[in-house]
Amino acid sequence: MLMKALELYPERKIHFDIVQVGAGGNGGYITQRLAKLLSSLNRMEVNSEFTYTIVDLDLVEEKNLQRQPFLPKDIGKNKAKVLAERYGKAYQFPVFHREEYVESLEELRNCFASGYDNFVVPLETKLFRVLIGAVDNHASRKIMHEYFQEDDSLIYIDCGVDGILQEGSEEEIRRSGYAGHCVCGVHHNDTILAPVASVYPDILEDNESLLPSQSCGQNIVSQPQRMQSNEMAALITMGYLNQILADRRLYHHYTNFNALTHTSKAVLLPFKNDKED
């Protein structure tokens, strides 16, 4: 039995307008790999075009050097700008950045290049917006969930990892902070694949999570993350992006993983036998 694949206009040219919200642990390692992938696809002259924008207002701090892909010389600089300039230059692919937090629907809409007046897609080219959520709070995910519901040509990939427990037994703390997820939602005229907040409804029920400008980084301070988990989240997210951007196909809906045990479990798209109606 073959895996069912969601195919994205295999015979038509597509412009993928990619926005990544978050340039920290997960986001930084995604940028390393995604910029390289987009550069490679450009050289291969695939039947696709790409724009890539990273959005974050956070500045690099000394504590970030422990698990995020930044250098001592980056301290005090905007994370999105550092990543865009470093990897755009390294892979000779233009990576744009916006130094802001996304805290409203309007702000998120304005992040996409396809929202600019001078952005033109020929009639023969299909436009897909790709939203990568690399944030650490449910308040931001709620905004992205709202946007998912209104955008009729959107692929929304959310990746997240658990923080390290600050209370509990020594063994519980040692084993914490390794679990994570990656969920790919697709909205094309209708919801084809449910987004992260539908897969995990507790996101919408969380009324305590604060937006970045409200929390002042308190979420990160209270529950730090592990670099191993950030890197695994990025690798799994890139698996989805490679399927979509390079192959125009998608085989999985979401993946749960544990970086401690080096295991992951992907939920495949439902298989339908060709003989069925």
Structure description:
With 277 residues, this protein is α/β, with parallel strands linked by helices. It has a single domain (12-117, 124-268), classed as NAD(P)-binding Rossmann-like Domain (Rossmann fold), CATH 3.40.50.720. The chain contains ten helices and eleven strands. Helix 1 (25-44) packs parallel to helix 2 (79-91) and helix 1 (25-44) packs parallel to helix 10 (227-247). The longest helix has 21 residues, at 227-247.
CATH superfamily: NAD(P)-binding Rossmann-like Domain
Strand content: 15-25%
Mean pLDDT, all residues? 91
| CATH fold label | Rossmann fold
Annotated CATH architecture: 3-Layer(aba) Sandwich
Radius of gyration of CA atoms, rounded to a whole number: 18 Å
Number of structural units classed as domains: 1
Helix content range of the residues, please? Answer: 25-40%
Structural class: alpha/beta
Shape: globular
Low-confidence stretches: 217-221, 272-277
Q: Top keywords for this entry?
A:
Rossmann fold; disordered C terminus; two-stranded antiparallel sheet; 277 residues; globular; alpha/beta
